[in-house]
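Figure 2 data, in text form.
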Amino acid sequence: MRIITLLMLIFTIKAYAGTDIATLQTVPFEGVQHECRQVGGISFGANGRWADCHVTRGRWVATIDFLDIYQAQYCLGNTPESCEQTAQVIFANRAYTPDATVLLTRLDEAGTSYIDPLIVNSDNDSVMSMTSRSAAGVVATEYFVWGTDHWSKMDAQHWQHDLQARLPKGTSVRELSALPDLETMSAAVKLFNTKDLDCCPSGGVAKVTLGLNTAGLDEFHLENRQFIVKNVAIQP
């Protein structure tokens, strides 16, 4: 399985839980790894939301369909040293042409950190996970499928409803919180017996092999891509 690491981005002025898919805005390619760009809700400078923006991390991260992918993480604030909001941006560029395309944007509260998203090939699709951790320690992960020139968000929870039908009688999934592991295309789900308290599952663990529902779907229906359950093994 080909594995590619990548970073992506989101926007809004306030703390925002989610990733925005850009409308294919273009910016000059030169310096995208080192200089902030005013894209999406990222606003700075004389007439901007913040006085200053500086790049804390920027680099080439992947090549997908002959597009080179670059990521940049920003700190925004009222001084060059401050970081009162954080942001991530993902750019694409083909063969060092003059312009870069903005693919994804993210803007979050101060203290938010980002884990490099992971991209894998599965069932002839490229799928990406993006994870952020808020200042309060809340971890959020989103999943996307790659089209010809853009990402489309996936439903990452529906498969857990399908899992319920495959579980032993008397056990259940109470919280839709298990996350797919793209590297192995699998998930581990804690199971509850009928009398279990919400704090204390005792029904074992369902080791789930996942796939994608690609049947009958094409480039124009990427938003309908979902994870599906291929196999389940119950462990104590």
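Caption note: The longest strand covers residues 52-64.
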